[in-house]
Specification:
Order of helices and strands: EHEEEEEEEHHHEE
Mean pLDDT: 92
Strand content: 25-35%
Number of strands: 10
Largest sheet: 5 strands, antiparallel
Distance between the termini: 22 Å
Length: about 190
C-alpha cells in the first residue's frame, strides 16, 4: 500500500465534519490500508481519514495498552461515548499530540474512559472500550471526524500557546501545509 501526506492544522478538511460511509468499496479498503501505513510511518497511535484528505468517517488505531498487545483496528462510522468525569488537567500526565500538529504537545483533560461503536471493513459491529491512552485515542480520533482538533479543546492558556506554536512554525503565514511521514518533509497544499 502507500504512505499518504498528512494535512496540518488550518486545512479546511480538518475543521469539517466527515460523511458516513454507506458501503465498503475497494477504494475504501485501499484508503484504510494506506492509513495504517501512514500511521506507522508517522509513528502515531491513531489516524482519521480527514487527516489524509478523505472526507469519510473512518479512523484507524494502534494504541499501546497496559499489560497486553496494542489495541489495533479500524472503525467505520464511529459513535463515541465519553465515560466518567475528566479530572483537572495534569500538565505532566495529560500531554496530547497530533499528527496534524506535528512536534507539539499540550496538556488536555479527557474523560478517563471511552467507548466507540461502529463497524469494521467486513461490516461486523465493533465496540472498543478503553481507559487511559486508549480512551484518549478514541476521543481524539472521533473528534477529528467531527471537525475538531485537540487544540480546539485546550484551556485558554494552552490554546494561546498552541496559536503561538502554529505561528512560530510558519503554518499560519505560509498557508496550509502537509507533511510526508515517509520523508518528513512539509509542502504547501
Amino acid at each position: 500500500m502507500a504512505v499518504r501526506p498528512i494535512t496540518v492544522i488550518g486545512h479546511k478538511a480538518l475543521h469539517s465534519p466527515t460523511k458516513k460511509v454507506k458501503e465498503v468499496t475497494d477504494e475504501i479498503r485501499t484508503l484504510v490500508a494506506d492509513m495504517y501505513d501512514t500511521m506507522e510511518a508517522a509513528d502515531g497511535v491513531g489516524l482519521a481519514a480527514n487527516q489524509v484528505g478523505s472526507r469519510l468517517r473512518i479512523f484507524v488505531y494502534d494504541c499501546p495498552v497496559p499489560d497486553g498487545p496494542n489495541a489495533r483496528g479500524e472503525v467505520i462510522n464511529p459513535v463515541l461515548e465519553r465515560l466518567g468525569t475528566p479530572a483537572p488537567v495534569d500538565e505532566e500526565e495529560d500531554g496530547e499530540g497530533c499528527l496534524s500538529v506535528p512536534g507539539e504537545w499540550f496538556p488536555l483533560a479527557r474523560h478517563p474512559r471511552a467507548r466507540v461503536t461502529g463497524t469494521d471493513l467486513e461490516g461486523n459491529e465493533v465496540v472498543i472500550e478503553g481507559e487511559g491512552l486508549l480512551a484518549r485515542c478514541l476521543q481524539h480520533e472521533t473528534d477529528h471526524l467531527d471537525g475538531y482538533l485537540y487544540v480546539d479543546r485546550l484551556t485558554a492558556r494552552f490554546k494561546s500557546e498552541a496559536r503561538e506554536a502554529v505561528k512560530d512554525r510558519g503554518w499560519a503565514a505560509d498557508g496550509v501545509l502537509r507533511w510526508d511521514p515517509s520523508s518528513t518533509t512539509a509542502d504547501k497544499v
